[in-house]
Amino acid sequence: MVKLPVLETTGHALTAPFRYVWPLFPFYLVLQLGMVGVMGAVSSVGASADGDVGLAVETANLPLAIAAGFVLFIAFIMLAVLTHRVIAGVEEPWQLGRPSVSYFLVSLCFSLPLLAIILLAGMVSGGAMLTGAPAAAPPPSVALSLALIGIYVAFFFIFVRLGLALPAAALEQPKPLLLGYRASSGNGWRLFGCFMLIVIAAMIVSTVLTLLGSGLGIIDWPPTDENVQGLANAFDLSDPDAFGILTVNVLTNYFTTVASTAFLTYSLRALWPNVEGGAAAASAG
Question: May I ask which residue range the UniProt record assigns to the signal sequence (predicted)?
Answer without folding.
Answer: none
